[in-house]
Design a protein that fits this description.
The protein has no helices and six strands. It has 103 residues and is mainly beta. The relative contact order is 0.20. This is GFA family protein.
């Protein structure tokens, strides 16, 4: 599996037959395509954040949830690629949480 975040989770929204229109900043996008796979991604060339991408071969817009600046009215519907998750991943709901960086 190709990791794109360096972490266990990456929250995305999928919009089949969606359209992607950039209002500003398109010139700052970087693009990567792994030549031996269908994997591709857009990213900010300034900060490297993953950005939305239109996947033409699948006719789908993939929107990283972290790009959104509003709350969502939907809830997660699925976890994918669970056969390669870490053995510690299932116990995260039982761990201590912090609203901010602990001191």
């Amino acid at each position: 599996m190709i990791g794109i975040t360096g972490s266990a989770h990456c929250s995305n929204l999928f919009a089949p037959s969606g359209q992607l229109t950039w209002l500003s900043g398109e010139e700052k996008l970087g693009f990567y395509h792994h030549p031996e796979t269908k994997f591709a991604r857009n990213f900010c060339s300034i900060c490297s954040s993953t950005m939305p991408i239109y996947n033409q071969s699948r006719d789908i817009v993939i929107m990283p949830a972290g790009c959104l600046d509003t709350d969502l009215a939907i809830t997660p519907q699925a976890h994918i690629f669970t056969d390669s998750k870490g053995n510690w991943d299932g116990i995260l709901n039982d761990t201590v949480t912090f609203e901010k960086m602990p001191s």
